[in-house]
Amino acid sequence: MSQTVDRALSILPLLAEGPADLGQVADRLGVHKSTALRLLRTLHEHGLVYRQSDQRYRLGARLFALAQEAMENLDIREIAHPHLARLNERCGHTVHLAVHEEGEVLYIDKVESRYPVRMYSRIGKPVAITVAAVAKLLLADLPEGERRAVAEKLDYPLYTARSTPNAPAFLRELEKVREQGWATDLGGHEESINCVAAPIRGADGRVVAAMSVSAPNVVVTADELLTLLPLVRRTADTISGEYSGRTPIKEAPEG
Amino acid sequence: MSQTVDRALSILPLLAEGPADLGQVADRLGVHKSTALRLLRTLHEHGLVYRQSDQRYRLGARLFALAQEAMENLDIREIAHPHLARLNERCGHTVHLAVHEEGEVLYIDKVESRYPVRMYSRIGKPVAITVAAVAKLLLADLPEGERRAVAEKLDYPLYTARSTPNAPAFLRELEKVREQGWATDLGGHEESINCVAAPIRGADGRVVAAMSVSAPNVVVTADELLTLLPLVRRTADTISGEYSGRTPIKEAPEG
DNA sequence: CAGGAGCGTTGCAACAACTGCAACGTCCAT
DNA sequence: ATGGACGTTGCAGTTGTTGCAACGCTCCTG
């Protein structure tokens, strides 16, 4: 809508790929060097880009700080965190909290496993949307049309032999998840890692977030992990209750 | 430099404080609602802001993804990480990596303590610049004039009785750190937490990053923590070697 | 050591894009 | 039913943005 801002913001993903100099930025933006310079300067003043010693530009520190601050202000996160921590204390495994936003699903909180073997994930990182248990829950709640549209547009990378292979399979899986009210990822992302997940709902019943417990095969089998399902669902429901305002927020013992 | 972009970017920190509606944004920007609307729309198209169900705006998912991507492209981080992990395996304590950027010092990597008691910190979070050991190292390396300018502009919050109280004290501390080539924070940020830190230098000898080991009193005393100093310094030197290209990057055993 | 290429930077005039206004639509509360 | 609050849109004025050309600088080369 605003050309100038549009151009300026287009610089960010460009720099995310790696540092670039003025000429490169101007070229890829399709504008004159002087224009690119002024845009970069403005971004610089706001700390979004940083000029390293070799004069090239890269993304700046304030970007991290902003993402950080925004993350900490998410109310679901704040409400959910103590429950995630308590769940982690009980079962010892990695606990994740994720939300859906315009085509992406991303982790917004994580409590690390107490076992030495940990899985790779990072808060803020978009999740493997076609296989992750939390992603299935979040997408399964979309209205039919949207769900189909999203499914068609996705890529279906075969992380493992058990990854969701294509859109029809994904839609079937979403349908199943929608009906049963919980989801799993059994080695669909990493061969040896399984997850069970449950939805967190707002006052209107819509899924606003999803949480999961993940553990590698070497620690517990998939079947053993599934025995945690009731606990995970209870925790999610408790969080739903607080989030939707039904439960007065107190030191609620759960389960 | 560019008014339009400047205004648009000013929206981001504003939204970082919490969600806001169109009117609030327009007011705080000092522009007409319609102008604010168009700026927000542009930010929205780029995924930097998100419109939640109550129509209010908040920071968007792409911001996290960008911060994430930028983080992973930092070469110091990539080079340093295995060394930080190895150091953590040896001593068991929390290990941090931090860089300085335009007045802020922020953590860009962290390996968690293996002890149950952990300290609060988060990757991407700006550090307590007046007391943190890594911050002292990074600022101590600035040229005299800049160092003084920075010191004058800072706030000196008294986190504890041992926090750096004011600019002169800070400058003295920086001078000391500069001479000895390492730094500590003994309860200056949190009463019971101590850190030892060492600088990582680029090919030109300038400090490009700093790393630290932190542990609470209840696990090890300050004196015990200080016995780790040689190990920390060796690790930092090894990373310096790789970063500056002096050491061919291989599975370098350190110590 | 001089010459040239490459890059970032600045002042300026032309113009496109941005701004603020006012009017409209919608939703919610009274 | 009615008023108010809020988001949204088309429009005309003009401000802010653009691309150009020229300059300064550094680095490399003959």
Whole-angstrom Rg of chain A: 21 Å
Strand content of chain A: 15-25%
Q: What order do the strands of the largest sheet of chain A run in, or round the barrel if closed?
A: 4-3-7-6-5
What's the CATH superfamily of the largest domain in chain A, by name?
A: GAF domain
**CATH class identity of the largest domain in chain A:** Alpha Beta
Arithmetic mean of pLDDT of chain A: 89
Protein name (chains A, B): Glycerol operon regulatory protein
Domain IclR-ED (chains A, B): 62-245
GO molecular function (chains A, B): DNA binding; DNA-binding transcription factor activity
Function (chains A, B): May be an activator protein for the gylABX operon.
Structure explained in plain terms:
Chains A, B: One of its GO terms (molecular function) is DNA-binding transcription factor activity. Chains A, B: It holds the Pfam family IclR_C. Chains A, B: Residues 2-61 form the HTH iclR-type domain. The structure is a homodimer of 255-residue chains. Chain A is of the alpha+beta class. The first copy, chain A, folds into two domains: 3-66, Orthogonal Bundle (Arc Repressor Mutant, subunit A), CATH 1.10.10; 74-243, Beta-Lactamase (2-Layer Sandwich), CATH 3.30.450.40. In chain A, 45% of the residues lie in helices and 18% in strands. In chain A, strands 4-3-7-6-5 form a five-stranded antiparallel beta sheet, sandwiched between helices. Chain A has a two-stranded antiparallel ribbon with strand order 1-2. In chain A, α2 (22-29) packs across α3 (33-45) and α7 (144-153) packs antiparallel against α8. Chain A is elongated, with a radius of gyration of 21 Å.
